[in-house]
């Protein structure tokens, strides 16, 4: 069960995540200890993000962030960034429909965004959000 939390305080943005990674019904699991804690919350260039859903999509999002960044730091800029990520997935023959299926928290230029169900919302100062299968527990 993935649990993510993101909080925007007056002084800083906080991202939190559980440490387990699980693969479908196979029963295979591993813990982040093997990755020095740099697996569920990642920084690529100017973007810090965490995601829930397909691990391969999360990794591909990191690869995409290596060469691209949002055109601006607002809801529309982040929305277009995820649309471009979907197009990239399709061009790379990773996702035939170009659909971004995962949910993400993204920090860009000191602003916090939540991408969920193909829509972006900004988490404003003094607010927080949770995501993942354990979002109720995190809340």
Describe the 3D structure.
This protein has 139 residues and is of the alpha+beta class. It has 3 helices and 10 strands. The protein has helices at residues 55-67, 75-91, 135-138, and strands spanning 4-8, 13-17, 20-23, 28-31, 41-44, 47-52, 103-108, 111-116, 119-123, 127-131. The strands form 3 sheets. Strands 5-6-7-8-9 form a 5-stranded antiparallel sheet, covered by helices on one side. A 3-stranded antiparallel sheet has the order 2-1-10. Strands 3-4 form a two-stranded antiparallel sheet. β8 and β9 form a beta hairpin. It starts with a strand and ends with a helix. Mean pLDDT is 86; it is low at 26-38.
Features:
139 residues; alpha+beta; 5-stranded antiparallel β-sheet; 3-stranded antiparallel β-sheet; 3 helices; globular
- Which stretches are poorly predicted, pLDDT < 50 over at least 5 residues? 26-38
Alpha-beta classification: alpha+beta
Gyration radius (Cα, Å) is 15 Å
Can you give the helix content as a percent range? 10-25%
Q: Could you give the order of the helices and strands?
A: EEEEEEHHEEEEH
Strand content: 35-45%
Q: How many strands appear in the DSSP assignment?
A: 10
Shape: globular
- Biggest beta sheet summary: 5 strands, antiparallel
Strand order of the largest sheet: 5-6-7-8-9
Number of helices: 3
> What is the averaged pLDDT score?
86
Cα distance spanning the termini: 14 Å
């Amino acid at each position: 069960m993935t649990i993510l939390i993101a909080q925007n305080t007056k002084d800083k943005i906080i991202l939190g995540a559980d440490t387990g990674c699980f693969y479908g019904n196979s029963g295979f699991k591993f813990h982040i200890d093997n990755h020095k804690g740099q697996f569920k919350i990642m920084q690529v260039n100017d973007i810090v993000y965490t995601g829930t859903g397909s691990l391969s999509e999360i990794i591909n999002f990191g690869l995409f962030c290596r060469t691209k960044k949002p055109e601006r730091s607002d809801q529309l800029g982040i929305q277009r960034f995820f649309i471009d990520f979907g197009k990239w997935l399709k061009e790379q023959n990773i996702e035939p429909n170009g659909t971004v299926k995962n949910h993400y928290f993204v920090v860009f230029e000191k602003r916090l965004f939540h991408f969920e169900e193909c829509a972006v919302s900004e988490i404003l100062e003094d607010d927080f959000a949770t995501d993942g299968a354990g979002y109720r527990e995190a809340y």
